[in-house]
Design brief:
The protein is an alpha+beta fold. It has a single domain, classed as YaeB-like fold, CATH 3.30.2310. Helices cover 38% and strands 30% of the residues. It has 2 helices and 5 strands. The longest helix has 20 residues. It is globular.
């Protein structure tokens, strides 16, 4: 299984990283580690997370107020959003192509 992401999800990651980097390099690095851990959770057990909308699933970061929204595509996963918990809950739906 491979994990890929929407360009806007990549931009959300970069924006959050920059936010945390302004506060502390250590905090920013821990944020990236949490993202990596969440991605590994998808790889290990992709179908065990709860559905958030149709066939899109959600995995939460533990120490940061973010979650990944993803969809399985065959044997691969596609992350459509790296969403903040307090942001409008379904803003990412506009990214759905099918």
């Amino acid at each position: 299984m491979q994990v890929s992401s929407h360009p806007e999800a990549d931009a959300e990651t970069a924006e959050a990283f920059a936010f945390y980097l302004e506060r502390s390099e250590r905090v920013a690095e821990k944020f990236l580690n949490e993202l990596k851990f969440a991605t590994e959770k998808i790889l290990r057990n992709s179908q065990s997370h709860r559905f958030t909308y149709n066939d899109y699933l959600r995995v939460n970061l533990h120490r940061y107020p973010f979650h990944l929204i993803y969809r399985l595509r065959g044997h691969d996963a596609f992350i459509i959003a790296v969403a903040h918990d307090k942001r409008h809950p379904h803003y990412w739906k506009s990214r759905i192509e099918d």
